[in-house]
Amino acid sequence: MKKMPEFALPWQRRLENPSQMESAATPFYAMWDAVARLAQEIRASEFMTEMIRRRDTHGSEGVMGALDCATLYGLTRWLRPALVVESGGFIGMSSAFILKAFADENLTAAKLYSIEWSEDCEQGALIPDELRSAAGGFIPMHGKVEDFLRRDQLPGSIDMFLHDSSHSYRHMLWEFRQFWPRLRDGGFLVSHDVQMNAAFPEFIAGTYGHDKRTGRRDAGRTSHYEWGRWGYIGFAIKRQIG
After folding, report:
1. Is the pTM higher than 0.85?
2. CATH node for 25-238
3. What is the residue extent of each domain of the chain?
4. Which residues pair with 114 in a beta bridge?
């Protein structure tokens, strides 16, 4: 595996003076505004119009909608990841918006490992040609997530994981638990269709540590910086403990 560019937390990149003090919450107030702005930008773009046309021509069943694609794009641009893994890449709607975020942030070395096990779909069919190539960062992988993990064919350390494969409670929770340890400090766990079952809120609840006296979050024992939901997209920002 080639050495990838060093990953830095977005709010750390913004601080010119390392001694500058910020409230622990401040970077995430800024994040919500930034992601909303980026999502609105892509929703109003010709790229969105073209991707919706491609989706509707191909068939929209089981394909991510415009709001969730825009949210995914905004999150990816804000994070500026070097290594992303997605499960359930399917015909490439989510992949296209991740790759578009790479291109718009000039992340020329970034890679998207897109996993799809179905024999009945043309993996990545919706992705525009200029984004589809390996040079553009797209690495399609055909098979089951379980097999790729068992054979150690996925990067051991990643910046972002997107779940969009089987939306059963057990499988979603299993994927979250498998990929959370692989995320670097500040990396994103992202899931589509979090409304399908209790897997996402249950996983998030398990990342909290609570102060026994106050009943509030104990930041030192909580393994996320922030989490949230937009539309049917849920996300959590990993905090490495220890």
Report:
1. yes
2. 3.40.50.150
3. 25-238
4. 86, 140
